[in-house]
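ok trying this again, last paste got cut off
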Amino acid sequence: MPPRFQSFLIIQTAFIGDVILATGLIEKLHQHYPEAKIDFLLRKGNEGLLTEHPILRTVLIWNKKESKIPNLFKIVNQVRSNRYDCVINVHRFASSGLITAFSGSKLKIGFDKNPLSFAFTKTVKHQISDLHEVQRNQKLIAEITDINYAKPKLYPNERDFEKVKQFQSQPYICIAPTSVWFTKQFPAEKWIEFLKSVRNKVDKIYLLGAPSDHSICESIRLAAANEKVINLAGKLSFLESAALIKNATMSFVNDSAPMHLASATNAPVTAIFCSTVPSFGFGPLSDRSIIIETKEKLDCRPCGLHGFKACPKGHFKCAYSIPNESLIKQL
């Protein structure tokens, strides 16, 4: 008979999309251990994803940008004092390995690629394959749950839905045109072309992104000369954006965090893959998911797991060879 765990800590201190995908573990653990306390450790700046999460007890926050090492040891002490029955480390770097190794937990689970995996109770082989990332993550807890995976899920609250209600008087689509990585990003001129071509097909179009994305979204809006386009980049929180995406007719995204926001709210989504490929395991999971990528056979694609700041070949054919008609068909 499997042990009955009373408390869990999930560690994922990477980026926004990684945290969203790790929420599938919260769902799965809660299915099997409904009375257990579940906490989540993430990096400062990402905590808004899990605000008022109905399953989580506590969200622990590690500030990695200021006094990184002192704050790391504070987190180590906090985790150790909480005396978790099980720590599940999704992150594959030494910092999270240190937290896990010194957690004092009865069961310490993580991937074999973590430099401190030798100090874990159980390790799971990590490899990029045809498995989706949520399935790779699920392998960490398969022995204490089952082999099936749970989809990621976010929980926008009533205030989040009320905030975006003002934008929902007419049918609308969302577009998240940016990405941290240039080669994951459908070119701005392609978005502009798309916005011009759908002028008479949709009532409202909302551009989404972080505050740092506001200027590029504004340049796209102005160049498109489409009065139906509204730039909301930097004006909505993570969960407010999720609430808006949830009820959109369609959202058009890159291989980036907004795609995972759609997955976590089961919203219709069209995901455009430029330099990366869905087989890496980070594709959309919504019931209505469309993947668009070039049909050209390019020797240079994929050029990397995460993308680059510029096309290594200088031509960026993986993006420019995608016809806009393939996007328009999804409306």
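PB: full thing came through this time. Residues 235 and 309 are 26 Å apart (CA to CA).
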